[in-house]
Amino acid sequence: MNAIRYFMFILAKRSLILAKLLAGILIIVAFFLKPGIVVADEEKFLLYGHVLDENMEGLPGARIHVHETGHTVFTDSAGHYEIHGLSRGTYHIHAYMKGYRSTAQTISLRSRFTLVTFHMRPSVLEIGEVLIEAHPYKLEEREKSQEVIVLDRSTLEKNRHTSFAETIESVPGVRSVTTGPGIARPMLRGLSFHRIAVVDRGIKQEGQQWGADHGLEIDPYDVERVEIIKGPNTILYGSDASGGVINIRTPGFPDKGIIRGRIESRAESNHDLIGGSAMVEGNYEDNFFRFRYTQQEYGNYRVPSDSVTFSGWNFPIHENRLKNTAGQEMAFSGTAGMHRSWGHTQVSFSQFNQSAGLFPGAMNRHPGAFNPRHETSHRTISLPRQVTSHTKLISNSKILLRDNWLEADIGYQLNHRREEAEPHVHNPNEYLPEGIDHLILNLHTLSANVRYHHIFSDKTRGIFGTSVSAHQNEAGGYEFLIPEHRGMDAGIFAFLHQYLSDNLIINGGLRLDYGILESQRYDQIKRDATGEITDTIMRAPQINRNFYNLSGTAGMTWHPNDQASIRANLARHFRVPRAPELAANGFHHGTFRHEQGDPDLNSETGYQLDLSARYQNANILISLSPFINYYENFIYLTPTYRFSPLPSRGQVYQYEQNSVLMTGGEVFIEYHPIPPLHLELGADYVWSQNLDQNIPLPFTPQPSVFNEIAYHLPLETRVVKSPFVNVNARLFANQNRVARNEKATEGATILNAATGTSLKFSDRLDMNVQFQVRNIMNTEYQNHLSTYRILNLSEPGRNYTLYLSINL
Amino acid sequence: MQLLCTIKLNYISLHTSKLIKKMKLQNVFLFALMFSLPVWFTACNDDDNGPDDTTDTTPPEIEVLRPESGEVREIREGEESRNLHFRANVSDNVELGEMHIDVHHAFDDHTHGKNFEPFHYDKVFDLTGTRDTFIDYDAVIPNTTIPGEYHLTIEVTDKAGNALADGVKNISFEITNANFGPVWTVNSPEQGSFVNRGEELEIDIEIEGFVDVEEINFEMIHKDTEEVVYDFHRDHLHADPYHFRRTVVTQTEWPAGEYILYIEVELENGKYYHLYPVLEIILQ
Questions:
Q1: Which terminus of chain B has a lower count of CB atoms within 10 Å, N or C?
Q2: Which B-chain residues 239-278 have CB contacts (< 8 A) with chain A?
């Protein structure tokens, strides 16, 4: 409610600027709308045609999907299909068929009967060229000037981890910053935290992204499809998308009259995880609903070592399990909506709750006070721990305005974070606070995005839009780290996409942003041991800042032939500094140091050039995607020579701004020497350098290579479908390019294997069973991107996973 | 790592030898190329250099002369305090920053009483402007200090922000204090009280240990014959203060006379203390 109140306050205060922005949008929208036409005509149109194979013969059983309305039909025995009930308008039609490359067409429905024929070409590759559903692109992947990686349900299932961020790590260039098995935040090409926009249901997820030990609050089961853009996209997504976008898509809805469900469950041996999720969805006369409930809990994780050395002390690890790394998660979501001839609208509510223990050595700079023995049970989540919840209420609408689509996403989210720890005094003359609420942060965010897609001609399309968001952050707890703050961001953009010829596409866009931030002054009241007030010290000043940003993008895609493509994209990206970067001043227990902001930081801006070359035929796909990213003023934490004046002491780390160069890229090869044999090779590399300090950036990922051999077992029967076995290895190279006071990390090779199958009992009942072993050799290794790296803690050892899903 | 790659290649060749026969030669070549890539990668792995030489990434250094590891600082009976001598050589290749020393007890943390407290010491030294310095500093350990194991933690930075190579330097030392003992409050029995044989003897003593009371030993000893007629032992108490309550039913066959009630506790710091002056009763 506070966020809404604040939003109103901002509206009043900055009404002039907002009015100008809104007027601008209205003028643009009005320009493209023919006046007087609001809702499409009553008239109904028929779309029909054939799906043909390479010999021009009809393909039975191919799936035809209308992106905008969600209609799905299958071709009959002659390869013929018909879709009724569409209104006049522009649609994206996809055709899918196993063993063929997916294809899509954009059609404008203008006459009562429209014939569209799809020509499918055989392919055994799992990664086909599919349509990108993420807002606001409705293009085929090959039409985009930036590479988009699409992970569908089956890929996500095969790579499931405890957290969502680790689940998507199978993609080259994608990593995660972790704190134990349950807390993880995605990283793209060495950029994470506020430089990656995670968009769920069309709305950018807003939590406390600045903290290395703050996980992403997303239910890993409530993700049907993920689209990853490994490069800046601030044009369409605003401030945080300077390093890339992770777009989480919810599944399409079932056809009319169908009610179905899915039950999934997983068990992992390493941290005794047991988890599951149940979903039910239905469609009654194009009114649809979906509910999901997820629960997951795990114990302390096992490591292949029996002692750990940090701060010069050696500690035993009892029973090879790291103390207090257990966790619990509970999530639910509900969605209801409708399809009509005028479009589609839905409202969803979701909540994610997590409680996770933190390795206690982490909190105590004085190892003498650390007792390495376990609590009564390995599942006990004792202090210190973090308790988080993320609640979202989101509405998504797509409305057909004559031939063009208007999309609107509105969301309210509340991120609640409570870090609990026993209060600790360093000195008996200090005041000992009561309770265990070390740090409480509540972030309210209200966001709205409106986009209008306009088709100028068959060759030219455009997107015009605006996004506005307001946030308010409340702070509590007995320790101070970041102040209370509130702010607003608004942006307006235009993006054009132009076919110069059949095989050459260019695109470009411009965006203007304005942001304001007000951060409250904080005075800490000092007390003596008896609770008497002795002094007050200012920990954070009052900060009022405004930020203007202009960003732009230009890209091109060239298809010399059907098999090859070359793409280039140049973008100027930006990011507005966040309150913690300006005003943090306290001991951050998650990173074990005093972090201090700088109120004078400017917007982070830079330029990135992405290149991508791809070759694909029926049995091989080779893709090469180098990038170069130059930041004029990258914001990062760097150690100073000063020790903290706070009781916990430690070196002060200060936010600074420097010019930075990052470069690297990914290689991906998928090869089927014979159709059932799948070979995969993915490699990624990131090089970073602070050009002012001549030193690499912290948290630069170790270069890695991922190698997989999978075999489709010849055991297919009427019941057994797609049985497979695979072996894969992930090689991490040494990371010796480290920031000041950061430890170098040694490489490791992790061997994994999996087998599984689908079982189809009837049209209404099928199952998926999978058994997996991770870290088969029980290798002891460390992850450069783990916040536990500082403590030399080892990553999890061997892990057996059993996964089962039932579709009803 | 290379070994693993080889194992993997063997695995492929074993399990796919039949399949390979079906493939064209060029396919086999591609296949081999793909899976040998990681091996090249591993091979060139170590060429990756750290930051260049123009930037100061060399950590400062420290050589601690005193206290030595395991050194015992002894506060004798009647003494007001004792000094902890801190002597160290600190140096850096460019310029030093600050040094932080911290003394903290190595036994469990908890709320402490008025009489005795763990020793804490915390100080930051400004070393800027120097490259090489000798630190000669004394910290006062008062006689109200709880004896036991203590840790001295030293952190040093240079002007560029580099910390010690291991992050911190730790030294473990011991403090003994002849003036220290738990505080006993004897509610029952009264010193020198008379008890009839066969009657119950109530024992009610509160012990404030300042650190956790771990173990208690109780013995009822005949003063002349030194015969132990009753004993009681309990450990893993983890309590402070510890309230010792026990009802002893005296037996008629116990000899009459003066008895010593000997009560001893072991504290969490590993030291034993007994109730002094000793409690005496007369059994009749």
A1: C
A2: none
